[in-house]
Design goal:
Keywords: Signal
Structural class: alpha+beta
Shape: elongated
Radius of gyration: 27 Å
Largest sheet: 4 strands, antiparallel
Strand content: 35-45%
Organism: Rasiella rasia
Number of helices: 1
Pfam families: DUF1573
CATH architecture of one domain: Sandwich
CATH class of one domain: Mainly Beta
Number of strands: 8
Order of helices and strands: HEEEEEEEE
Distance between the termini: 107 Å
InterPro entries: DUF1573, Ig-like_fold
Protein name: DUF1573 domain-containing protein
């Protein structure tokens, strides 16, 4: 009789154990984070003239509940120079990430900018693309 009672008690505990895990998991909150909401994650320069101004900006808003701190911004090559906002971007605040593409080479380009931060998406990829032309240097002239 004692063995049966112990066995039943063990079965009850084992049956209730998964329910305890579900209840505790529901009580666990995910840590609050900042969240990027970009107006655009890709900028198309279109067709631009050689040696023209290659400066553009990516505008975003922090729609999260805590400040976003951008720790680093890296570009895929030295021809693209990004600039990050100074200081944290508070919830509801709008900021800009600047990018300057060196337009001294003729041809099509596609470059990526990697933004590292404490936001919910800690690694965000932005892209620029376009075509640089030299209308002053036409063949046959």
């Amino acid at each position: 009789m004692k063995t049966t009672l112990k066995f039943q008690l063990v079965l009850i505990v084992l049956a209730l154990f998964p329910l305890a895990n579900v209840a505790s998991a529901q009580g666990v909150s995910v840590a609050a984070k900042g969240e990027f909401q970009f107006e655009a994650t890709e900028i198309d320069y279109g067709t631009i003239e050689k040696d023209s101004d290659g400066t553009r900006t990516f505008s975003f808003t922090n729609v999260g509940s805590v400040p976003i701190v951008i720790t680093d911004i890296k570009s895929s090559c030295g021809c693209t120079v990004p600039t990050k906002p100074k200081g944290p971007i508070m919830p509801g605040q709008t900021a800009e990430i600047g990018v300057k593409y060196k337009t001294n080479k003729v041809g099509a380009f596609t470059k990526s900018i990697t933004v590292l931060s404490n936001a919910n998406e800690s690694k965000k990829i932005l892209k620029i693309r376009g075509i640089v032309v030299d209308s002053k240097n036409k063949l046959g002239e």
